[in-house]
Amino acid sequence: MPQPFVCGVGRLDGQIGPSTFVEIDGKDWHDDPLAFETDRERDLLVAIKNGRTLRFSSAFFRKRWGLCLNAMVTALEDDYLRTPSTAFPPFPERLTRVRRRVG
Fold first, then answer.
1. Per residue in 15-35, pLDDT tens?
2. Which terminus of the chain faces fewer neighbouring Cβ atoms within 10 Å, N or C?
3. Would residue 75 count as lying in a domain?
């Protein structure tokens, strides 16, 4: 899946719901204060448009997959209950219902 482009924000790593995005970053790309601050600014720009960015380190995403998955499922449950923001790229595969995994 190509990285979605959000006007006024730029490209994000992935879109997992109508208004929910995921960023997965490693220390290789974000090891200086400017990159760190730029990422947080982009998260806020998404939030201003009524969206959400879940940000994971690449190491955490690999080592703590279950926790990351639970966070994404919870975000998606909320995302599909809300009216999607028109500020984001179309999300073609809208689910009618997302069920949270237990355990």
1. 998 899 999 986 665 567 888
2. C
3. yes
